Amino acid sequence: MRDLTRLILPTVREILRQGKPAQVREAVAALHPADTADLLLALEEDEATTLFRALDAERRVQVFEHLDADQQEWLIGRLGAEVMSRVLDEMASDDRADLFKHLPGTTRERLFPLLAQAERNDVKRLLEFPEGTAGSIMSTEYASVHPDMSVSEALEHLRRVAPKRETVYTIYVTDEERRLAGVVSLLELITTAPSRKVREVMQPRVVSLPADTDQEEVARTVAKYDFLALPIVDAEGRLVGIVTHDDVIDVLEQEHAEDVQLASAIGPTEAPYSKASVGLLIRKRAGWLLVLLVAGFLSSTVISAFEESLAAVVALAFFIPVLIDSGGNTGSQSATLVIRALATGDLDLGSWLRVVGKELAVGLGLGALLALTVTLWSLVWPEARHVAPVVGMTMVLLVLWANLVGAAMPLLLRRLGIDPAVASAPLITTLVDATGLLIYFSLASWLLGL
Amino acid sequence: MRDLTRLILPTVREILRQGKPAQVREAVAALHPADTADLLLALEEDEATTLFRALDAERRVQVFEHLDADQQEWLIGRLGAEVMSRVLDEMASDDRADLFKHLPGTTRERLFPLLAQAERNDVKRLLEFPEGTAGSIMSTEYASVHPDMSVSEALEHLRRVAPKRETVYTIYVTDEERRLAGVVSLLELITTAPSRKVREVMQPRVVSLPADTDQEEVARTVAKYDFLALPIVDAEGRLVGIVTHDDVIDVLEQEHAEDVQLASAIGPTEAPYSKASVGLLIRKRAGWLLVLLVAGFLSSTVISAFEESLAAVVALAFFIPVLIDSGGNTGSQSATLVIRALATGDLDLGSWLRVVGKELAVGLGLGALLALTVTLWSLVWPEARHVAPVVGMTMVLLVLWANLVGAAMPLLLRRLGIDPAVASAPLITTLVDATGLLIYFSLASWLLGL
User: Fold this and answer.
1) What is the ipTM of this complex?
2) How many Å apart are CA A186 and CA A173, to the nearest integer?
3) CA 20 to 30 Å from A211, out of A244, A321, B244, B400?
C-alpha cells in the first residue's frame, strides 16, 4: 500500500460510512486521479463502489484510466455496464482498446452496443493490431492541423479540440489524405506571428514508424529522439495514431518485467506479486522447473555412464558442483550481455562472427583464471591432489564452451524468430551441465587411465 | 550501426573528403541531431572532427547533447577547450553536470575557467548531489511564473525564456522565496482569459520530491502520474530543478541494464557490448565468477565429508546436478519475484512475514511436484532405484529451503541498505548448493544406513 493511501484511508472510510456522496466527492477532490485509483484498490469492494459512484463524470474517467485492466473489469462487473458506458466512451482510445482486449468475450459482447458508434469503430480498428506492435499501444487522439491553416487558425482549432486529445504539444500537419506533411510544436505556434501559415512554421521532416513496428523499437525511437510523442502511420503513410511518452514508459516497464522473469525461467505474468495467489505462482513457475529437471536427467545419465571411473576415484565427485556452476555462471553472463546488446540495437545478427571471436578470447581468459584458482586449491587438498590436473583442464574447456554457448544461443534464437531472452541462465546451465560432465569424465578416464 | 547511418555514410564521407564546410553543413542539415550524433560515432576520428567543426553553433550543442559522456570527453580532447566553451555554456544543465562528473580531474580543471560564471556555479551546485539521487539527474532550466502575474504576462514571459528552458509545457508557480505555490500547463494558459491571474488558473497541489530522493523513486512517480516533468525541491521546499520525461526513460534504461547485469553476476558497466574490449569484459566478469567459485569450495568440502557413503553407493552422485540445479532455479525464481516487487513498490519490508508464508506454500507445492517427477524417473531406472526415496525427500526439502532463501535474501539485503538485486541467481545457487548437498548426504546416510 502506498504511503499516501495509508494516511488518508481511515478518514475516507469514515466519510464513506456516513454515506453522503457530496462529502465523498469533496474529500477526494484534492487527490490526483492516480492516488484516487490507489485508494480504490485499498478499500473493501463495497466501499470502492460507493466511492466511484460518488465521483463526477469527468473524474470517473480519469480514475478509471489509472486502474489495471483486471481492476477495470471488476469495476464494470460491480457498477453495471449502463453506469460505465459514459466512462468507456470518454476514456483514452489506447486505454479503452487495452481494456476490451482483456475483457472476456461475453462481457465484451455486452459492452460493445453501449459504446457510441465512433468509439465502437475505434475499438474494433485498434483491436486488429497484434499485441506488442505500435498499433496495439497507440492512441488515435492526436492533434492535427492542415498546412494551409494560419497559425492563429491552428491555435483556435487546438483550443477547441484539446480536451479530446492526448497531447496538443506536438501537432501533426496532415494533408487531405491524412498523409503526414510535417510536425510543429505548440511552443513554435505561440512564438510565431499569428498570420503565418502552418506550412512555413512546420518541420517538414517527421520521424514516424509503421503500425506493425515492434513496441520495443517504438520505445527505443522515442528514447533516442527525446520525443513527447511519435506518429504512427499505415502502409500508405497516413497518420493513424500516436504513441506518447507515458506509453513508452509503460512499454519499458513491461519489457523489463518480462526480461527479468524470463531470465529466471518464470512464465510471463502481469499480476503484481502481492496480488498473485499461491496457485498462480506455482503455475507460472512449475513449467520451466519441470522442463529443466527433465533436461537435467541427461546429466545423470552421463554420470552413470562413468560409474566405474567414479567408483575408482570418488574424489572426482567433489568437483561436480563447482565445475557445473562455473560453466552455468559463465554461460549466463555471456548470454545476458548478448541479449541486452541485441535488445538495445547495439548488436545485430550480421555481427555474429565478431561476437564469437570476442567470446572465444573472453572465455579463454576467464577459463584460465578459474582453472588456475581451482587447480591451486585442489593441489593443497591432500584428498584431491591426484585429480587436480583433470579438474583444471576441464575448467578451461568447460568455461570456454559454456561461454560460447551462452553467446551463440541468443543469436540463434533471434535468427529463428524467437525472443533471445528465452536463453535464460537456468536453460544455459542445464544445457551446459551434461556436456561439461562429459568433458570432465572423458578427461578423467584418459588422464587417470580409468 | 543504425540503418540510417549505414545508408548515408558513404555520401557523407565523400563530401567530407572534398572538405567544403558549407557543403557538409548543408548535407547534415536534414538530419535530426540524434542521427548526426550516430553518424559522428560511425566516422573515423578525423572525419568526425571535420564534421563537428562544420556545424553551426546551435547545432553543435544539440548534437553534443546526444553523445555519451565518454564520447563528449573524446570530442573535447580533439577540438580543444576553446572551441568547446560555447557548447558547454549552452548545453542543458543536467547534461553538462553529467559530463563534468565523468571528466577526469585535470580536464575538469582546465574546462571550468572557460564556463561563464553562472554556468560554473550551476555545475558546482549540481555536482554536489550524490549519484543516483533526483538532484543528480535534474535540470535547473525549468519555467516558472509568479502567482500574481496575469495569464498574458505569463505567456509573454514564457515566449521570451522558452529557448533556455527544458520545457515550457509544465510551468511552476513560485513565490518570492522560490517556494512551489502551484503548477499550470501551457495548455491551460492558452485556453483561459488573458486577463485572469495565474493564481486563479493554477493547480495549487503539486506533487514534488526532495533532491535526495532515489532516482528510481523519481522515475516511478513520473510513471504513476504520467507527468511531463516532476519538480524537485530542497529541504525548505524551494524549487531547485525538474526531472523531465526523457530523463526518466534514461533512468529506467540504466536501472534495467544494472539489474540484468547484477542478475547474472556481472560488474556494472556502461560501455555498450560492441565497444567493450576483451580485457574490459574479462575484468567486469571475473570478479563475481571467482567469488562464486571460492564459495563453491564449500560444496566440495561437504561431498568429501561423505566420501565413504558415496563410495558405498556411487548412484548418489548421479543426482547431484539435478538436485543442485533445481534448488538454484527455484531460489532464483523467488528472488527475482521479490526483487521486482520491492523495486516497483509492490512490496515493502513490513510485509516480510506475508512473503515468507506465501513462499513456504509455493515452495512446498513446487517441491512436491519436482520430487514426484524425479522419484518416478529414478524408480524406472534400475541402477538408481535404491536411492529413489532419498532423492525424492531431498528434492522436497531442498526446493522448500532454496525457495525461502531466495525470497528472504532480497528482503534481508534491503534491510541492510544493500541493493536487493545483489541476490542474483548465481549467488543464491552457490549458497544453496552446500546446504542442499548436506541435506542430501545426511538423509542418504540415515535412510540407507551408510
Assistant:
1) 0.81
2) 12
3) B244
Cα A263 versus chain centre, distance: 13
A366-408 pLDDT, tens digit per residue, is 999 999 999 999 999 998 999 999 999 999 999 999 999 999 9
**CA B329/CA B405 separation, integer angstroms:** 12
Looking up cell 541531431 gives B33
What is the rounded distance in angstroms from the CA atom of residue B240 to the CA atom of residue B405? 43
Is B262 an 8 Å CB contact of chain A? no
pTM, rounded to two decimals? 0.82
User: Which helix or strand (DSSP H or E) is residue B233 part of?
Assistant: strand B229-233
Residue A1: pLDDT band by 50, 70, 90 thresholds?
A: very low
Q: Within 10 A of A118 (CB to CB), how many other CB atoms are there?
A: 9
Closest CA to A105 of A73, A138, A68: A73
What pLDDT sits at residue B1? 47
Identify which of B246, B260, B347 has the shortest CB distance to residue A226. B246
Q: What is the pLDDT of residue B28?
A: 84
Nearest to A127 by CA among A101, A99, A162, A145: A101
Calpha distance B76→A350 (Å, rounded):
32
Whether residue A169 contacts residue A228, with contact meaning beta carbons closer than 8 Å, is answered with yes
With beta carbons under 8 A apart, name residues in chain B contacting A225. 32, 34
Residues of A (219-248) whose Cβ lies below 8 Å from B: 219, 222-226, 228, 245-246, 248
Q: What is the pLDDT of residue A302?
A: 95
Torsion of CA A45, A49, A52, A53, to 10 degrees: -170
Q: Mind telling me how many Å the CA of B109 is from chain A's nearest CA? A: 31
Give the total residue count for chain A.
450
pLDDT band per the 50, 70, 90 thresholds, residue B2: low
Residue A161, min C-alpha distance to chain B (Å): 11
Chain B residues touching A332 at Cβ < 8 A: 264-265, 425-426
3-class state of residue B184 by DSSP: strand
Within its chain, how far is the Cα of A346 from the centroid? 19
pLDDT digits (tens, 9 = 90+) for B130-169: 999 999 999 999 999 999 999 999 999 999 999 889 999 9
Read off the pLDDT of each residue in B34-58 and give the average, rounded to a whole number.
88
Portion 98-137 of B in contact with A at CB < 8 A: none
**pLDDT tens column, A264-318:** 888 877 778 888 899 999 999 999 999 999 999 999 999 999 999 999 999 999 9
Using an 8 Å Cβ cutoff, are B329 and B366 in contact?
A: no
SS3 (DSSP) at B145:
strand
CA–CA separation, B437 vs B427, rounded Å? 16
Cα dihedral A404/A408/A410/A414 (nearest 10): 180
Alpha-carbon distance A446 to nearest alpha carbon in chain B (angstroms) = 20
- Which of B61, B209, B313, B337 is most worth mutating to test chain A (most A CB atoms within 10 A of its CB)? B337
Residue B421: predicted pLDDT: 85
